[in-house]
Structure prediction request, 177 residues.
Amino acid sequence: MSPTRRLLLLRHAKAEPGEPEQDDHERALAARGRRDAERMGEAMSERGLAPEQVLCSSAQRTRETLDRILPYLPSGLTLTLDQRLYLASAEEILARVALVDARVRCLLVVGHNPGIAALAEWLAGKRASAAAARLRRKFPTGALAEIVVDSARWRDLAPAGATLASFLTPRDCGDGD
Prediction:
């Protein structure tokens, strides 16, 4: 049996709409997004979701989301800001995940839709579960998909070897907007 790994796919929290002349890459979190990101950090800690490594898009809104959840994550984890994850497709995210060292047992990716949702759906496959149905219906800002992977290396990640363990939204974490 292959060692179990956890892939945590987190969509950035709610961002400000931005101004017409503003670069999309530089959009900041809205007040709701800041609150939601902290809620998600608390929820991750309460559920024992402890990544050893984080891959984060270089966009302002993903960096701010990560900053809000970091106090709830284990100290000493490896953080990588990666321009390639900015608005990346599911395939591009998967290609980046494939480069992660096999010794990493729990990996968090902080990114954007539609790539994050598409990758979570692909990995969840056609399995019927309440969490999978919710994920397919909508992957809102600040949502987290916890995927259990049974493979020896990240590069072997495939739908047949992955299971959606949980799907959590900020609203699930109490008094969300």
